[in-house]
Design a protein that fits this description.
mainly alpha, 4-stranded mixed β-sheet, two-stranded antiparallel ribbon, 12 helices, 6 strands, about 5% strand
Length: about 400
Amino acid sequence: MAQAYGLYTHIRGNRVRSAGLLIGLFFLVYLLVYAGALVAAVLTTDAPLDWLARKAWRDFLLAWPFATAGTALWVLIAYKFHQALIDAVTGGREVTRKEEPRLYNLLENLCISRGIPMPRLKVMEDSALNAFATGLNQNQYAITVTTGLLQSLDDAEIEAVLGHELTHIRNGDVRMLVIAVIIAGVIGFFAELVFRTMFNASGSAWPSSWSSRRSREEGRGGGAAAIAIALVLIAIAWFLSIVIRFALSRSRELLADAGSVDLTKNPDAMLTALRKIEGRGELEDAPSAVMEMCVDNPRSGFVDLFATHPPIDKRIDALVRFAGGHDPGPIALPDYAEEEQDGAQPGGAEPGAPDEQRPFLPERPPLSTAGKPFLPAEPPLSPGQAGPWGPRRSGG
């Protein structure tokens, strides 16, 4: 009970901090609006810096309701269509119990055991090992897993990954991250708009007035300083929007790992799942915003500052310390593509071996990229014996 109480206490505190971060992120839009007003003042008037700053403030007070309405409209559109956009770029498709009984039953059992509304289940054809959750409310929540994950993890490990994503949904992480990505998109749009306005006007005569002799003699010519201030404000808003997005992602992964153990009561499954996913989760065609939602994001930025997820080793250490279990260490998974090129049968069977000696392999999507790791096949099944993917087919 103490462990659960501590977990939920951290979750509540994290929600409060996240809400504060998102409010701050929203106000960054207003910072950009003021920067744009400052640029507009320079474009229309040659005056001292203090006069330009006051004019920009007056223009900002007139413009902020429109900026708020535009941002709200952006959020509304994203609220309605974000899942369709994510499915379009990842190729995720919704599946039913009939199509994916193994995966569907694992998720359903987890939800029933804790009274959690079951999210929609999606599968994307990709040999990478990863999964992510999306949605802004109970009617939209969905968990997407890759075919590579389904083939490489056993039932307990897949259940642990599903528990990780369910925890993100329960904690409100998914909603917060989606909103943060949306608002960051607004900031990027406003920043680009201001930059385009500045550089489209670079061919006009107004920049020359910044340093004109007459302006200096009359005490005007504050345009250069005003533009410099606007550029600094834009850079600050853009940088903080990125840092906040990464903070929202990084601070939640450890809680989601712990939440998965709390749901499944199986720390070893989560530890092994993380080791198998480690370094194998790259969704090559997915944008960075989608990778930030995944179980693991192997993409890294400038040193560790822009890494959206804690290192796997740090997550493993936290689970071993606070949830128990045994760290299996790095796990090497066989490569089906190399085995097939060498003429060996996946799973260790010799070429030309009779069907009775060959392990039954479930159908796999074609590998899009060589070098993607997979687990060996499931143990052999007798004809007619049911397995995770249905009964064994006679005749190989």
